[in-house]
Amino acid sequence: MYDVAIIGKGPAGLSASIYTARGGLKTIIIGKESGLAKGEIIENYCCSDPMTGDMLLEKGVQQAKSFGVDMVDDEVISIKRGDTFEISTSENNYRAKAVVIATGKARKRINIDGVSRFEGKGVHYCVTCDGFFYSGLKVGVLGYRDYAVHEIMELNGITEDITLFTNGQQPQLDEESSAYLEKKGIRIDKRKIERLEGENLLERIVFENGETQDINGLFIAYGSASSADFARKLGVLLEGEDIIVDKNQATNVEGVFAAGDCTGGVMQVATAVGQGAVAGQMAKAYVRDREQVSK
Fold first, then answer.
1. What is the pLDDT of residues 65-86, one digit of tens each?
2. pTM, whole model, 2 decimals?
3. Which of 17, 116, 151, 281 registers the highest number of CB atoms within 10 A of its CB?
4. Quick one: DSSP state of residue 75?
5. How many domains is the chain built from?
6. HSE on the CB side for 277, CA within 13 Å?
């Protein structure tokens, strides 16, 4: 059990971890490489010599580790709330008393004609939120990584007519995900999608080769889970794809904080570090208050 789990290993997450770990809280950072690592040169970060994004992140990682922060290089596919938070990755599960979401800006939505038109009318982004509408119906999940398979698992018991659409991508799945699809007999359709069609509601998928597939619902889980995906499942309020936070970087869900690009605003390293510091301090205060109440 961790006191604080931080999702994302960019400047916001690293900054938050330094404050929680120095405060004596057992802290873990889970995430894949930050997008900042691709930055060729960063020279507008105050009090620092110009350096590459990779160099800046490595300094943050080493500093966090020096305070005892555990680092896990893995893809988070789910965060669930109970008495504590359960964070699932492609390889393991972790529990924490508080969560800081610092996964950067939400990924761009997939460029398929009709996706925006049918949002809420057959196209969805959260099985936990909207899956029950499709009990016994023909449903697809659009994706090609473990996150998509996790969404298929969430459909278990709702419907058995499920297809994984990869949109021309080769599936990139671990052994557990592959075994699950085989065990459940889930179809994998690798055809490239051209558009979605229907009258008022989604009715069919049209592929580039001209073939069609009738469908009642399509859940988008393309690539890796984003901050907005985590937020929706936890009941965290969003404005567009940005997580809504107060001055303490707290969301509307108790114990969930957010910092960095995922909250919108000025997307700069300095902003992310500052918000991460606040989120870390407030997460620390939340955990300490919770411990006092439980005594």
1. 999 999 999 989 999 999 999 9
2. 0.84
3. 17
4. -
5. 2
6. 6
